[in-house]
Amino acid sequence: IMFGVTKKSMKTWYLYVLRCSDDTLYTGVTTDPQRRLREHNTSKRGAKYTSARRPTQMIYCEEHEDRSSAHKAEYKFKRLTREQKEKIIII
User: Which of 28, 31, 35, 59 shows the greatest Cβ crowding within 10 Å of its Cβ?
Assistant: First the structure.
C-alpha cells in the first residue's frame, strides 16, 4: 500500500508527435496515445490545428512517469528547431 499516492496519479503520461497531412508537426501529451490519435483524426475532441490538417500520423511517442514531466518534455521539444525535432524522431 502506498500512502498519499492515488491510482490516478500513477498513470503513465506520454509526449507524442503527429505528422499532419501538410507535413507540419503537432506535439501534445496524453495518457492514451491511440485514443488521442483517433480523436485528432475523427472527432471534435482533437485539436483545432489538426482538424484542418487530417489525416495525422503518430510518428513519435515517449513515456513519462507523470503529467508534469510530460509537459516539461513537451515544452522543451516545442522549442527545438524543425531539424532538431526530425533528428529526435528519426523517421
Answer: 28
d(CA 17, CA 88): 11
Q: What is the pLDDT of residue 59?
A: 97
- Comparing CA positions, the residue from 86, 81, 82, 73 lying closest to residue 14 is 73
Q: What is this structure's pTM?
A: 0.87
Q: Given pLDDT bands bounded at 50, 70 and 90, which one contains residue 10?
A: confident
**Site of grid cell 503520461:** 13
Q: Cβ-count burial of 78 within 10 angstroms (0-12 exposed, 13-18 middle, 19+ buried)?
A: exposed
DSSP class of residue 83 equals H
DSSP-derived secondary structure for 13-24 = EEEEEEE-TTS-
Residue 55 contacts residue 19 (beta carbons within 8 Å): no
What residues does 26 pair with on adjacent strands?
18
